[in-house]
Design brief:
The chain is mainly alpha-helical and 288 residues long. The chain has one domain. The chain contains seven helices and four strands, in the order αααααααββββ.
Length: 288
């Protein structure tokens, strides 16, 4: 039983704590962010070593090491993105007249460099773990990467609760590419694919004989389940920000009227600095 319960609890804590650490770092003063970036970059290098070493370990500890290494490497990517270090060549809100393919093109340019960096990292992780007996690190990183792409497609096509309090001020312009006026068939389709993979992983866990394989698959399945839950946070009127209040420094409470894809929303109170919230008027148009 420990082979199943321990990985689940481990993933829950690692997901919650690592997210909080990243959020805290990106909201720190510039000098502290720079120190955090240096430390995270060194840690990312060590995580690559951890992925290579763990891939050859046919033990439970090897599965945990591979998972942690993948998570640490992903946290570094999140840090360089949320600090605005690596995003894309376009750092402007979505043009008010953009729709169809042009809207997709401008949205892609806003995150292109980071998406390329992630794809290269996937190839590096695959190369480090190629034909190795322990694939826990690769499985974890693939889940993070694929579900991130899924989440980005979800907010692009339509997710009513996509705009989060956790978005740093420096990246507020990215929310102009989100559709918040509807949910499209893309969401259930993406969820169905993810759930299908989850069912496959659970089945694989039940039939695995090696302890390190059981743990590795359980870690991966639990992480995928959390990613699916996070997708629902994007479309349901439920905020997950409460889980990381401890990691987000309090700011002056101000009131602002935030325009949305459907028009002007009701007056709401936000714990943030006053800032313009740009939207893409073209988001009201169907994808062409």
């Amino acid at each position: 039983m420990t082979l199943y319960v321990a990985p689940i609890l481990f993933v829950l804590f690692a997901w919650w704590f690592s997210t909080g650490v990243v959020l805290f770092a990106v909201r720190s003063p510039f000098a502290q962010r720079r120190i955090a970036m240096i430390a995270a970059s060194v840690a990312a290098g060590l995580c690559l070593v951890g992925l290579y070493v763990s891939a050859g370990m046919e033990t439970v500890h090897g599965a945990y090491l591979g998972f942690l290494s993948a998570l640490g490497l992903w946290a570094w990517h999140e840090l360089i993105f949320l600090t605005g270090t690596v995003t894309g060549p376009r750092r402007l809100p979505c043009p008010s007249d953009a729709s169809g393919f042009r809207r997709f093109q401008t949205a892609f340019l806003a995150v292109r460099d980071h998406e390329v960096a992630l794809a290269i990292t996937v190839l590096v992780v695959a190369a480090l773990t190629w034909n190795a007996p322990n694939q826990a690190g690769l499985w974890a990183f693939l889940v993070l990467w694929v579900m991130r792409l899924s989440a980005k497609l979800t907010v692009f096509f339509g997710a009513p609760n996509a705009i989060s309090q956790m978005t740093p001020d420096r990246l507020t312009y990215l929310t102009s590419y989100f559709r918040t006026d509807r949910t499209t068939p893309a969401f259930p389709a993406l969820i169905l694919m993810a759930v299908s993979v989850l069912v496959y992983l659970i089945t694989a866990v039940s039939s695995a004989s090696d302890a390190h394989t059981v743990v590795g698959l359980t870690l991966t399945a639990t992480f995928l389940a959390l990613a699916i839950v996070e997708h629902f946070f994007l479309v349901l009127p439920i905020s997950d920000a409460v889980l990381w209040r401890w990691a987000m420094p309090k700011r002056p409470v101000v009131a602002e009227i935030a325009p949305s894809a459907g028009g002007i929303e009701m007056l709401r109170t936000l714990q943030t600095r006053p800032r313009p919230v740009a939207t893409c008027r073209g988001a009201n148009h169907d994808i062409e």
